[in-house]
């Protein structure tokens, strides 16, 4: 009997254990360790969470050092603002910057470096037209978007799908300038231009604008990009008795020319494009001698719209100085780049370039951006005048 009872108890125990095992062993809840295996894809973002690199190649020393400084500040401000909002596709953006000293040979070596060693998604290259032109084949070869604020028209005529100009091309500056001065009744012009791609280009656009107005320059004098003494050129210019000296050179050279021309007795009008409408020109010439200089620019630091007001406030807070046109156009160009990076899927330099070419109707500091197949982004400039040591919109007749 005891044995029978014992057998019954054993059978019941086995039955109970068999019934209990499905609930007692939620192996599917242990299986979440199978769902925990996808925890490795969440570790995978470690690879994809690497920072996205943007390169800057610019003149940060020498005569054109101020251009590299403005470029770096404009790009950096835009990148820092984007990083504060989470970056691009969850990744932070890192800037790698190099000084090419406005030397095209050095610039090409640095272009090769950022493309291969730094593996940038895009590059600002460069602050000078001559170097920008030299770098175009490198970035086209590696299919990396190249932004520049160089104004020489040849930059976007090389047939590269990877070059983008973040400001109007040179003729937009010089056509507006010469047309304005001619309408003011001025007819006697002299041109002084440096031999860089920027200076030669601007001098050519000034010549062309004069011819379109049925005029020609009384004389055109040339000089080297790092020259500091312009007595010889100015003596020849003053012999022709011009009403206007058109400046086509760097901020520093233009300021020195204005100073030396006044010392030699010139009492007429100074005028020029992008380089003349800058604080560096005023500083170099001296506020008194720069007073009344007429220039053209696509942007001035006024408060005409909300985008400009926000930029001016942010730039001053970050850099403790007033912004100017070069910092503004690199900020604008970087905003275009960031927008294209957000749209690129997957995020590759080639896809970013493709997305850049699709952008149109984008509002920026300089106006509305529409990217062309050649890489132009914006046109149109306004006339400014240096008044009280400040860059202001021309409001006279």
Helix percent band:
40-55%
Tally of discrete structural domains: 2
CATH class annotation of the largest domain:
Alpha Beta
| Class derived from helix and strand content | alpha/beta
The whole-angstrom Rg is 31 Å
The CATH architecture of the largest domain can be given as 3-Layer(aba) Sandwich
Order of neighbouring strands in the sheet with most strands: 7-6-8-9-10-13-14
Low-pLDDT stretches: 1-47
Q: How many helices in DSSP terms?
A: 17
For the largest beta-sheet, the strand count, sense and barrel status come to: 7 strands, mixed
The quaternary state of the protein chains shown equals single chain
Mean pLDDT comes to 90
Overall geometry: globular
CATH T-level topology of the largest domain: Rossmann fold
Q: Termini separation (Å)? A: 125 Å
At the fourth level of CATH, the homologous superfamily of the largest domain is Response regulator
